[in-house]
Design a protein that fits this description.
- Helix content is 33%, strand content 19%.
- By secondary structure, it is α/β, with parallel strands linked by helices.
- It has one domain (3-80, 115-266): NAD(P)-binding Rossmann-like Domain (Rossmann fold, 3-Layer(aba) Sandwich), CATH 3.40.50.
- Helix 1 (17-29) packs across helix 9 (227-236) and helix 3 (95-103) crosses helix 4 (105-111).
- Strand 2, helix 2 and strand 3 form a beta-alpha-beta unit.
Length: 269
């Protein structure tokens, strides 16, 4: 029996750019994959019948119980826009609310349905809480560079509406939960997909960049990060004890070699 036959990976945020690629990489490696989604139709269109779909919403902790059944690992790549957008589903009753909201981002975040506060903080915390009664081998959380320096440029701009504060709340709750974790902090994301692709396209996805993968700890590096390399990191860390209970940043910088040895990268942690 393939050792991966006993690993059931729950992917949360699977219809986003990093999430789509993560699912494809997991399937290519032979893992069993379950996807938490609010839309079964969209998910099945994307991944065919090669994944199990469980309907739920991280904003509603009561909807997560079924998704956790028999899960051995969780990969969470959820996120919303850093700045107010249609994804926030804002419902401000009058122009005064709108103006005051932008002057007070915390209040705006509370009014929005899918703000960073709702998704990156409270949603992630709900997900971690739902894992406390199961024996997870790993909880992988995709966060962001800048969470330890939200007041430094350029992260001070990114954090105008509190996205880095929210991601840090999610990180802290996971770290203190007692669940084995890996936190991956990419910088500005590059490479597709930017919209939904079919599974065959995702399985063949390769980075368009020629820059190598750089990882570091302490939130001190800057740059840009390939979604494809971030997804690969999510998958590769599942089988590495060196990444257990570690948080690290990942960017692309310098000349890329033909092959990428993740085990050598993990030695830097």
């Amino acid at each position: 029996m393939n050792m991966l036959d006993n690993r059931l990976i729950l992917v949360v945020g699977a219809t986003g750019g990093v999430g789509q690629l993560t699912v494809a990489k997991l399937l290519a490696k032979g893992y069993q994959v379950r996807v938490l989604s609010r839309s079964e139709t969209k998910t099945k269109q994307l991944f065919d019948d090669r994944v199990e779909v469980c309907i739920g919403d991280i904003k509603d902790i009561n909807s997560l119980t079924q998704a956790m059944d028999s899960v051995t690992d969780v990969i969470c790549s959820v996120g919303t826009t850093a700045f107010p957008s249609s994804k926030w589903e804002l419902n401000l009753s009058n122009p005064w609310d709108s103006m005051m909201g932008y002057l007070n981002p915390k209040q705006l975040g509370k009014k929005a349905k899918n703000s960073p506060l709702q998704i990156d903080a409270e949603g992630v915390i709900n997900l971690v809480k739902s894992c406390k009664n199961i024996q997870l081998e790993r909880f992988v959380l995709v966060s962001s560079c800048g969470v330890l320096r939200p007041n430094q440029f350029p992260y001070s701009i990114l954090n105008l509406f509190g996205v880095l504060y929210a991601k840090k709340q999610g990180e802290d709750y996971l770290i203190n939960s007692g669940i084995p974790y890996t936190i991956i902090r990419p910088s500005r994301l590059i490479d597709g997909p930017f919209t939904s692709y079919d599974l065959n396209t995702l399985l063949q996805a390769k980075t368009d960049g020629e820059q190598k993968v750089v990882i570091a700890t302490g939130d001190k590096i800057n740059g840009q990060s390939s979604r494809i390399d971030v997804a690969n990191a999510c998958v590769e860390c599942l089988s590495s004890e060196q990444t257990k209970n570690k948080a690290f940043e990942i960017i692309n910088q310098g000349e890329r070699k033909d092959t990428l040895d993740w085990n050598k990268l993990w030695e830097l942690l």
